[in-house]
């Protein structure tokens, strides 16, 4: 998800450093979901001090200057049903914000949220300079008050779509004396990765896999790989008489991994397809779709999902949207 800039709520919390870890909190999963089943980790802290990025295992699951851990739901429907955000450790609510709408960010709305990119959020003080920050929560869901004492697992609110994001998830930042700490590699030296030997700050070691999805999108024909990589394959509006095709751009898949592609529109599901990746490369894409039915697609909004799985565990999930215009 997009990088969180400096803001009043974040209180200049975002300098990557290696502080002393004495009295560090032990963290529980900050969301009421099952990793690999109903949620997955999309992005980790960027440990590359330069313009590039790498996660704590020296792989691709981060973005330049990303300052937290992003745990995503598998669908917008799950967000609408309600998934609780949980305090990762005991502490006191130091700051909060509510009242921002759950709206995917666009270029047209980016300026309107300047300074509030974290969206609806809660910041918890755990003592000894340690804090956790929970971003992008659902509008009206904040369930705690400033100054309130919370325990590990206390519901803080629900996963939402507020601030600088376009998919439902919780962004968790961990801080020590105002410096960003990667909870998977809390003693990391700047630029160092791949040295994790235990659970980090987590009470229980969380699973990691380097495979994932760069992107997913709708097109009106099976695109070529160059168009997928450049973004030129993406179509956001079309007419009722065109095919609807969804593609997914995968990295580091293994033989036997499964890609699932689904799409729905105003009248329900339009296709469901699974494919086993028998001999994947470091990068690949797959596409699946349908020709327009007789009479054309009903006008309206269509949404698709591409999911990468291994042995029944979700490794990555991306959504795509397209509008079929009325003739």
UniProtKB/TrEMBL annotation:
GO terms for molecular function: metalloendopeptidase activity. Residues 1-22 form the signal peptide. SUPFAM superfamilies: Duplicated hybrid motif. Coiled coil: none annotated. It holds the Pfam family Peptidase_M23. Keywords: Signal. Residues 66-183 form the M23ase beta-sheet core domain. CDD domains: M23_peptidase. InterPro entries: Cell_wall_metabolism_enzyme, Dup_hybrid_motif, M23ase_b-sheet_dom. It comes from the Bacteria. The keyword Nucleotide-binding does not apply. This is Peptidase M23. It comes from Roseovarius atlanticus.
């Amino acid at each position: 998800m997009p990088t969180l800039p400096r803001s009043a709520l974040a209180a200049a919390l975002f300098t990557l450093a290696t502080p002393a870890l004495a009295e560090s909190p032990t963290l529980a999963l900050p969301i009421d979901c099952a990793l690999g089943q109903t949620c997955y980790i999309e992005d980790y802290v960027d440990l590359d001090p330069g313009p590039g990025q790498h996660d704590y295992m020296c792989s691709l699951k981060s973005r330049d200057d990303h300052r937290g851990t992003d745990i995503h739901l598998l669908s917008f429907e799950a967000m609408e049903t309600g998934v609780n955000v949980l305090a990762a450790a005991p502490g006191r609510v130091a700051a909060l914000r509510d009242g921002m709408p759950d709206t995917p960010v666009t270029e047209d709305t980016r300026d309107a949220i300047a300074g509030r990119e974290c969206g609806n959020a809660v910041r918890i003080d755990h003592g000894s300079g340690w804090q956790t920050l929970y971003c992008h929560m659902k509008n009206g869901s904040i369930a705690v008050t400033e100054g309130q004492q919370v325990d590990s697992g206390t519901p803080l609110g629900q996963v939402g779509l507020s601030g600088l994001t376009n998919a439902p998830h919780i962004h968790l930042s961990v801080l020590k004396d105002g410096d960003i700490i990667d909870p998977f590699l809390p003693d990391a030296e700047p630029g160092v990765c791949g040295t994790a030997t235990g659970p980090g700050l987590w009470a229980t070691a969380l699973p990691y896999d380097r495979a994932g999805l760069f992107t997913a999108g709708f097109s009106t024909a099976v695109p070529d790989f160059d168009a997928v990589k450049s973004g030129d394959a993406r179509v956001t509006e079309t007419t009722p008489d065109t095919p609807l095709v969804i593609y997914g751009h995968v990295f580091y898949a293994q033989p036997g991994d499964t890609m699932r592609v689904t799409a729905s529109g105003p009248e329900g599901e339009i296709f469901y397809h699974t494919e086993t990746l028998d001999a994947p490369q470091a990068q690949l894409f797959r596409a699946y779709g349908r020709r327009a039915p007789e009479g054309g697609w009903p006008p309206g909004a269509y949404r698709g999902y591409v999911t990468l799985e291994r042995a029944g565990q979700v490794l990555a999930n991306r959504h795509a949207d397209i509008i079929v215009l009325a003739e």
